[in-house]
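Bumping my old thread because nobody answered last time. Still need a sequence for this structure:
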């Protein structure tokens, strides 16, 4: 499995601790240093069953600069949102875990992290 993390994030560190305690094998992706592409984001959103605005951190300063709170949220707007996430990875909610079996979660709780464990 792969986990997208920001090392400065307490939720990310907590998720890593749960994975370590369970002895899970995983790869860490520091998504701020290695941002996901639009194609990767589209695939993750499909696996999550979510829209891009559902995983967008709208309180980040860059979100305010872009005026994200005023952007419409329709299927026609998906590409614009995904483009913003790819260009500004700090906007992506974290951590995100993609498991080898296809399970993908926004792992902000211990329960969410445990849901991807075999």
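Sorry it took so long. Here it is:
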């Amino acid at each position: 499995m792969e986990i997208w993390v920001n090392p400065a994030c307490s939720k990310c560190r907590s998720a890593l601790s749960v994975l370590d305690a369970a002895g899970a094998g995983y790869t860490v992706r520091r998504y701020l240093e290695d941002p996901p592409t639009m194609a990767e984001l589209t695939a993750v959103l499909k696996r999550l069953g979510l829209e891009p605005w559902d995983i967008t951190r709208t309180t980040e300063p860059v979100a305010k600069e872009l005026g994200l709170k005023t952007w419409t949220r329709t299927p026609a707007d998906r590409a614009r949102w995904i483009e913003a996430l790819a260009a500004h990875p700090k906007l992506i909610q974290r951590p995100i875990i993609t498991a080898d079996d296809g399970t993908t979660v926004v792992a902000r709780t211990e329960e969410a992290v445990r849901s991807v464990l075999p």
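The longest helix spans residues 10-21. Let me know if any region looks off to you.
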